[in-house]
Fold:
Amino acid sequence: MKPTFRQNSRRRGFTLVELLIAGTISALVISCICAVYFSIVRHWERQQGEGDALVATSRACARLGDYFCQASSAQIYSRFTTNDTIAVNMPLDTAYGTYVPAWTGGKLQTRSGQWIAFYLSDKTGSFSNQGDILWAAVVNSSLSSITPDSAWSLYSTDGPGKITPLRSLRFDVTTGDGLTRVKITAGAAYKVFETEKVLSQTAIFCLRN
Structure:
């Protein structure tokens, strides 16, 4: 006896229940693959962001420390946030782009009325603007005269001297045991997908006494 058309159709096709089961399994597999993919991308972005933030904060602390270790005194100012700017009095003489101590009568000679301030600003270096670039400026003790130093910040070139992006800078000065110490806290932000995270690094340097 030959099979009927109805019997052949039932043998060749899939039932609705079978299609639903297959679709559910496929959706679960795709969901698992997507979850693994996004997890890998998130992990890579976090590592990349942390690395860039660590480089920026480490370079900022190291470069500022080079100056603080030679400075004779320091003053802290608050521009936009608490203690976000510092000015240091440097030795009188310079040679080959670095400060060289000059002594008279056993006393370190410093620049009278001239200080160097460090702060964050935008590409203009304006003391009135907020930004993520580390700048230096020649100032007086009252900050009424400010001359940004674009050569120091190296913003005019794409060289390695440009330290950016930084989210925040904070300075604290303490004295004790005959030493003056400057504490730097530098922060840099990075994103993992749409979530912003901030990495902070702290360093302490003693001023020259």
Q: What stands out?
A: Residues 15 and 151 are 76 Å apart (CA to CA). The mean pLDDT is 80. Helices lie at 5-12, 16-68, 150-153. The longest strand covers residues 179-192.
